[in-house]
Write a structure and sequence with these properties.
Beta-galactosidase, Chain A, domain 5, 43% strand, 9-stranded antiparallel beta sheet, 7-stranded antiparallel beta sheet, mainly beta, globular
Length: 350
């Protein structure tokens, strides 16, 4: 196992570094200290050609200016919070509203916008990058000084583990995720239409026109959201289902089937031979098929096309704090938040 550290740029005169963890199988994970962002994952294809299998911008200036969330640690609460507020006891906690009167990805000053402290450790079988930061009480309206630790670990089995921990000194809400986009073809210019997607979920959350959950959990049976046996992703994205057409592709939360020995998601690409399986202890996964064109705002970076990647955002259901049937995202002062998601990479059998 190897760990390499390089300077990636500066944010407000503070150096931002990129750490690259690599194993014995030409597999590498790169993460920067700004936002804990996964800048790229490199993996060989079936012929041994090492390629980038994630989709992201390449410069810190672009990441800061555009804030596209690609590969970022999103929090304290990922997704949307309806009306930018929630009820705690008899009083509303008012949050920063940054999208149509709602709160998206924790407002304008979330975990993706700060420089994290970094430590590394490794042995013969794995390498880890440990990132820490503190969210100050009241930032974007969220209560509590929240200490956050995120550990990225790569092992020799081509597994990437993301472990989240958090503690607070005031009752608050916490529901982080990582917004990494995958394109297993190895070419970000390609769409993800040729990928096959399997989702171990019996229900998905219906959304309104602002992409806020309505509170209804619908059965996937006999719908375009039934991906339990797998489906070519292009067929899903161009489906005539009204809920998919309205979003321009998938942008929906799927409820994880509990007590299942199957991965939550299996994504594969026949031409490259690559396979990605996702395991998580979270209640849900939001699947988003990059339903927009990402033009560089600094005129010095890539143009990322519509449907060039797929984000597999493990978390508890979005807007859970305002939906009585969506489970809890409360974090109390005497609690330790702990969660782990694993991305397992392999090859299709010949």
């Amino acid at each position: 196992m190897e760990i390499k550290k390089e300077r990636f740029g500066f944010f407000k005169s503070e150096a931002v570094h990129e750490y690259t963890l690599s194993n014995a199988h030409d597999f590498a994970l790169s993460v920067i200290t700004y936002g804990g962002i996964i800048t790229k994952i490199l993996m060989p294809n079936r012929l041994g050609e090492v390629q980038e299998i994630t989709v992201n911008m390449t410069t810190l200036d672009e990441i800061i200016e555009a804030r596209p969330f690609h590969g970022a640690i999103v929090g304290p609460v990922a997704g949307r919070i309806s009306n930018g507020r929630y009820l705690d006891g008899d009083e509303y906690v008012e949050l920063e509203k940054n999208e149509n009167g709602n709160t998206l990805h924790s407002g304008t000053t979330g975990l993706d916008t700060r420089v994290w402290k970094a430590e590394t450790k490794k042995d013969d079988s794995k390498a880890s990058l440990i990132l820490t930061t503190t969210l100050p009480d009241g930032e974007a309206g969220f209560p509590g000084d929240v200490k956050v630790k995120v550990t990225y670990t790569l092992n020799n089995q081509n597994e990437v583990r993301i472990h989240y921990e958090a503690e607070t000194n005031k009752r608050t809400i916490f529901n982080p995720s990582n917004h990494v986009y995958f394109n297993l073809s190895g070419k970000y210019q390609n769409s993800v239409y040729a990928h096959d997607l399997q989702v171990n979920s019996n229900h998905y959350a219906a959304l309104n026109e602002e992409s806020i959950p309505t509170g209804e959990l619908k059965k996937v049976t006999d719908t375009a959201f039934d991906l339990r046996e797998g489906e070519r992703l292009g067929n899903v994205i161009i489906n005539k289902n009204e809920e998919i057409v309205d979003k321009g592709g998938l942008d929906h939360p799927f409820v994880v089937n509990p007590h299942s020995d199957k991965p939550v998601v299996r994504l594969s690409h026949v031409a490259s031979g690559r396979v990605l399986e996702v395991e998580t202890d979270r209640d849900a996964i939001v699947i988003y098929t990059h339903n927009h064109i990402q033009k560089p705002v600094t005129n010095n970076d890539r143009l990322l096309g519509m449907h060039c990647g797929i984000a597999l955002e493990t978390q508890n259901l979005p807007d859970a704090v305002n939906q009585s049937n969506f489970g809890s995202i409360w974090l109390e002062p005497d609690q330790l938040f702990s969660s782990e998601t694993v991305f397992k990479f392999s090859f299709l059998e010949e």
